[in-house]
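Risk register update: the risk of archive-format incompatibility is retired. Evidence:
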Amino acid sequence: MDAAAASGARGEESRGDRVTGRRSFNPVTIHYSALALSFALILVLGRNQWFFGDDWAILVPRADSDIFLPHVGHWTLTPSVVFQLVRDWLGLGSYLPFLALAVVAHLAVAHLIWRILGRVGVDRWLATVLSILVMLLGGASENIFWAFQFGFMGAIALGLWVLLLFDRTTLNVPLILVLSVLAPTFSGTAIPVLAAAAVVGFIRHGWWRTVLLLLPTAISYVTWYLLVARDHPVPSSGIVSLGGALLYAAAMYGAGLGRALPWIGLGVIPALTTAIWFFATIRRGLKSVAAPAYAMVIGSVVFVALTTYSRMSFGLSGAAAERYAYLTVVLLLPAIGLQLTRLVRASKRAFIATVAVLGAFIAVNTVVLGVEAHAQAVIETGSELRVDTRLRALIADPKDAALLNSPPDAKWSPDLLGSDLLTLYRRGEIPDLRVPHAP
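Archived output:
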């Protein structure tokens, strides 16, 4: 389909949305209502969370001057600056302001996926149900309830926004430049999403316009890597063996999609059907309004390849990590949505059955979200108690070298040393001593 035809198809879609929008019960209303309800629900479920793990890597006072340094290979400039500003403004008396940042980034991803699903031709009701599945993706609760993942999900959201901007007849050059340069400063997860956006740009606007628009991003990222990140390599990165790499990649796809399903082993089914769909239809698909769906599958290959190279040496079990599953689901959802659309348009019964099954998946994920929120809160509240105990000891003896130079919780918060804790207390950013409540 040429650009004019694609534009006309999108125009028809927009008119259809406006007609649907006149009704009180429609996909648009349901989607925005679900966003608001999901925001409230996640914050309620996450009300007992506390600072944990990598949160401290960008919150400890020692990190204030290291905002350009990579964190496990990722450029975390923007989340570092944002978290430190919130810390200095509101202190560390409550986790909710930090958690809210991650939830906003997560729901931005869900909203942008909904928009992409609509643009590529997924049934509007089906797109809305699938976006709700993303909002309440209990299989990726590690991302949703962990404030540090604001960077991970923020990078994805900005990348998806750039993809949508490339999928327009008229390019918004200033916005594309700003968003594409900013995205990698959140996390390296921006790279595969921007790769997908570049594919859409090549298709819609030609290679030279796309290259010129993304060149500043490449220059800024490569400059940062050469000047800073190259001296801080990710430990043990590399391909151990070709067979091991293929197995790791296959596990990322199968287990990643399986995280959204009642049983993780079921993820093999959508992984295989998506591979078959992609190779069977790509020739004509890249020329249609569905091009972003194909581009995102290509982006998933970039993501899996980069992750396999940098993480496979840590063991096969890491391939099923919730944070990887999150991006795998996001990148493959438009392709899955198009497959399901073809199914639901076969008959009314097929539509009802498909929506019912997806509704059951949403219910299971919501339950998992609540269970995982409690499980994480138990760990984090225990960590809070150990930190509180250490602070009491430091206030009593602020010159004890053993207390100052060791972490209060070496297992769950190794980046927080006693000296950091005492500095935060003296600056008023840990406002009081308290015995944590039971979650």
